[in-house]
Design a protein that fits this description.
Layout: H1 3-19, E1 24-32, E2 35-43, E3 46-55, H2 69-85, E4 94-102, E5 105-109
Parallel strand pairs: 3-4
Antiparallel strand pairs: 1-2, 2-3, 4-5
Length: about 120
C-alpha cells in the first residue's frame, strides 16, 4: 500500500472507532486552501474536528508527536473556514481531537489541543 492508501485506511479505522463511541461522523477529508481536516463529527454538544495520525511503529516517532503546533494552527484555520461555510456561529462549541494509531493500538485524545490562531506562538 502507498502512503495515501495507508492514510485512508487509518482514517476509516478511526471513523469506525469513534462512531462506536458515540461520535456521529458528518464529513471525511474536508479540504480547503486553509488546510485539511481528516474527520468532522458531533459528539454530544460538540462539533469535533479530528486529526488522525498513523504510525506502523515507533521508529519514526509517535503518532501524537506528528500533531505539532504548526499542524494545529492549520487544522484550526480549516475548522474556522468549515464553520463559516456551514454557517455555524461562535455559539457552536468546538473541540479538537486526535486519534493516534500506532501499529494495532488506537488512542483517542478528546480536546487534544485548544483553538490556535495566527502565526506566532
Amino acid at each position: 500500500m502507498n502512503k495515501r492508501q495507508i492514510g485512508t485506511c487509518g482514517e476509516e479505522t478511526a471513523a469506525a472507532y469513534l462512531a462506536a463511541r458515540g461520535v456521529r461522523i458528518v464529513e471525511k477529508n474536508f479540504r480547503s486552501r486553509q488546510g485539511e481536516i481528516d474527520l468532522v463529527g458531533y459528539h454530544g454538544e460538540y462539533l469535533v474536528f479530528v486529526e488522525v495520525k498513523y504510525r506502523g511503529s515507533a521508529r519514526m516517532g509517535s503518532a501524537l508527536e506528528a500533531v505539532d503546533l504548526r499542524k494545529q494552527r492549520r487544522i484550526c484555520r480549516a475548522a474556522d473556514y468549515y464553520r463559516y461555510l456551514h454557517r455555524l456561529g461562535d455559539d457552536c462549541p468546538v473541540r479538537y481531537d486526535v486519534v493516534a494509531i500506532q501499529g494495532e493500538e488506537i488512542l483517542w485524545i478528546p480536546n487534544a489541543f485548544p483553538h490556535r490562531s495566527g502565526r506566532a506562538g
